[in-house]
Amino acid sequence: MSRWYTNPRCSDCGLFTSWDADSYVPFGGAEDTEPDDPRYLCPKCHEQEIADGMERGRPWDHWVKSDADREVARRLGLREARPKGCAWSVWMKELPPPNDIYRSGWEWASPASSGGKR
Questions:
Q1: Beta partners for 80?
Q2: pLDDT tens per residue across all 118 residues of the chain
Q3: Of 79, 89, 112, 115, which one is least surrounded by beta carbons within 10 A?
Q4: Is the pTM for the entire model greater than 0.85?
Q5: 3-state secondary structure the chain
Q6: How far is 53 from 76, CA to CA, in rounded Å?
Q7: Quick one: angle between helices 67-76 and 43-56, nearest 10?
Q8: Across-strand partners of 40?
Q9: Are 71 and 60 in contact (CB under 8 A)?
Q10: Cα–Cα distance for residue pair 1/91, rounded to 1 Å
């Protein structure tokens, strides 16, 4: 029996791209039992994602961040932060003080997790 493998398609335009292409995993909903599949971006859509983020003035918030998200954040001077003990993160310029919801406060994500794939 032979195995058939194919490259993933770009989630935006549908073109075939490589497995090491830029990708992200969006946040799911409350009813989801599994994380969403990765969304891949071809080089053209990667650049469009950066342009869209710069136009918005903010990178997208994804469960697993893309290189495009990280590039927009770098250009805007944002860093990845999360509530202490949480796996998810958001982009911020400075850490907020602890409040009623996040009593333990926030922390910067580790440098290894905010460096991108490449």
A1: 91
A2: 445 556 789 999 999 998 889 999 988 888 888 878 889 999 999 999 999 999 999 998 888 899 999 999 999 999 988 888 787 888 888 887 777 666 667 888 865 444 444 4
A3: 112
A4: no
A5: CCCCCCCCEECCCCCECCCCCEEEECCCCCCCCCCCCCEEECHHHHHHHHHHHHHHCCCCCCCECCHHHHHHHHHHCCEEEEECCCCCCEEECCCCCCCCCCCCCEEECCHHHHCCCC
A6: 10
A7: 30
A8: 10, 23
A9: no
A10: 47
Contact (CB, 8 A) for 32 and 62: no
CA Rg value for the chain: 16
Q: Which residue has the tokens 């969304």?
A: 39
Alpha carbons 31 and 108: distance in angstroms, whole number: 29
Please, how many CA atoms are within 13 Å of residue 89, restricted to the half-sphere of its CB? 27
The two structure tokens encoding residue 24: 């992200």
